[in-house]
Structures are given as structure tokens and as C-alpha cells.
Amino acid sequence: MSRVARLSVLLALLGVVQSGAALAQPSEAPPAIRVVAAQRGEVRETVRLTGSVVAGETVSVSSRLDDFRILTVRAEAGDVVRAGDVLAELDDTMLRVEEAGAAAKLARAAAAVRQAKVATEDAEIALDQIRSDLRRSAQLRDKRLLSQGALEAQETALRRADAALATAREGFAGAEADQSLAQAEARRIALELGFTKIRAPTGGKIARRTASIGAIPARGGEPLFQIIKDGLLEIDGEVSERGFAKLQAGQMASVRTIGAPDAIMGRLRLLQPELGSRSRLGRLRVTLPQGTDLPIGAFASGEIEVGIGNGVVLPTSAVQTEGGASTVLTYRNGAVTRTMVRTGIKTADLVQVLGGVEAGDSVVLKSAGVLADGDRVTPIETPYPASPTGFEPATLRMASER
Question: Rounded to two decimals, what is the model's pTM?
């Protein structure tokens, strides 16, 4: 056999072997796809917020006197005070001098009142005596035992006694008025002496102190102290317009801040009635529990629970929504099927399924892929939590009612 013939036979035999190998190779396996089992669980719808720690209510404490030097300062920023505690003292030397003078004036006024009272009583006695004498004189005149001139003299004395009594009474009223003025002056000085001790008008924590020894504060000027009333802190936060519409005062909020190891449970106190003109964000206030110790201005984030759904739940990625209709890819007998579902509460992680899928059904984890109805797949079972990870009761502190 020639060389060319032998080469042709070898090539033919090689083709037969390759064809046999191709026939012996198994067909390609379906693509591997992650699937999950629908579970019964709980879905909690929340509204996210961001904001800062602020004082719930700040009370400013200023001097109520002018031109009085600060003598001592007894409180510092961060101190917890009670209503009535002395925060600072003003120099009361001049007021003590005025107090002594007012005491002397008050003593003189009291003495003048006593003298005027005695004079008034004497005038009343004299007038009564003259009236009695006049009645007896009138009887004597009727009996022709007293002349008309003597009777007229007694009537004149009566008019004079009556005028003297009126003058005495006016003097008594004037002495009482002077005494009232002296008492008012004494009360004013006593009041100002009380103002020299600058007291906390309410209990709470001192947020700021500007008072310094030797300074002369002006009445109604810059506050010497600022107190966080009752020590209550709040979160001044913002939420989206969509989330804002679902909020109501009294709802609970789980708040986290840098430096706080656990979430803090606060209560939604206030919803501002106006959205931001540009941002369209809603503003709110969340009251934190009394005793919460956080720095003013600290960044805070949190969630407010607005709804709870129980029943069959799926990962949110398993549900595809188009044109208002929601579908999932269910897996059964090696192939997937597009199935219509009704959904309820939806979060970033989980969605509540109200119909179309039962607990235990296998569903493709990512529905919006390239799979079509009837495609065959190799399932990879993938676990997932059927409950939200937030709002863990063991780590939350309930906010007290305001």
C-alpha cells in the first residue's frame, strides 16, 4: 500500500474515533440557579430617618439685675441641677446698705403711723366731749339758764373739733401711705437681694455656661446658663416625603448614634407641618428616654416602624414588579414557572406574600434574571432569615411618656 493510501486510512480511522468520543460524551447540565423556600415569618415596614441630637427644651438663665458683679459661680456645663439650685451669686454689698436704710425708713414710718393714730383718737374724744357739752348747753338755754352767746361759742368749738378730727384722720392716712411706700421699698430691696442668687428655674442638665467671676452681666443680656429642661434629649431628624406620610405622633423609633453600643427606643413627638421647599423632606422630633447621655449635635440615624405583616415571606429580590403586577419564578420538577403573586408590606430585605405562593414553595432568589417560563435549571438551596434584623426587644430601651 502506498504512503498516500496509508495516510488516508489513518485519517479515516481518526475521524471515526472522534465521532465515537463525541457520541459517548454526556449532554450539558442545566444552569445552576439559587432558589429559596417560601417561609412563614414577619415583615416590618419602617421609615428611615437621619438627624442630630438636640435638647428637648432649653431654658435660658440670665441676670435680673443691672450693674452687679458676679461674685461666685457654682455650676459648670454638664452638671445636673434641681429647680432652685444656686448657679451663681452677685455682689450684694450696695443692696445691703440700701436694706439698712429701708429698715430705718420703715421704723420711722411705723412710729409716724402710731403717733397719727393717737392724734386721731384724741381728736375723736375731744369732738365727742364737745358734742356732749353742746347737748347739755342746749337744755340749759331752753330753761333760760344759759345765754345765746355761750351756746354759739360752744357750736363754734364743735366745728373746730370736727375740723381737727378731719385733719388728724388725713395725717393718719398720710402716715399709713408713707408706711406703705417704705414697706414697698423694703420688699423691692429684698426681692433684688434674692435676685443676687441666680437660681435654676427648672431641673435638668446645664448645656452651656458663660458666667465668669468678675463679669457684670446686663439684665436681659446674654444668658449666663442654658439648661436642658429635665435633661430630655431629642432627635431633630428628616425623612422622605413618602415615609413622612406614614408617620403619626406617638410611634416608636429605633435610634442609633456613634458611641452608643445599643439602639435606643424613642417616641415620635412632633411632625413639622411643612416639607422642605427644595428637599421635600419632612422634619420631626423623636424624644429619647430620660437619662440618655449623648452630646448635643451628635449624628443619629434610625427607623420608625409603621406596619407589621405576618404570613408567607420572600426575599425582596425574588419578586419582580412590572406595570403594577408582581411575579415570581417558582421551581418545580427541574423547571421554573412565572407565577403571579399578591404582595403586602415590602422592605429592602423581605416582602409579604398574600397569595400565589405557599410556605415551602421553591422560588428563584433573583427573579429579574434571564430565565424564561419553562427553562430547566439546577437548583441551589439558599437559606435566608424570615424576620427583620432591626427592633430587637432585648437591646431597646423604652422612652418614657412626656
Answer: 0.66
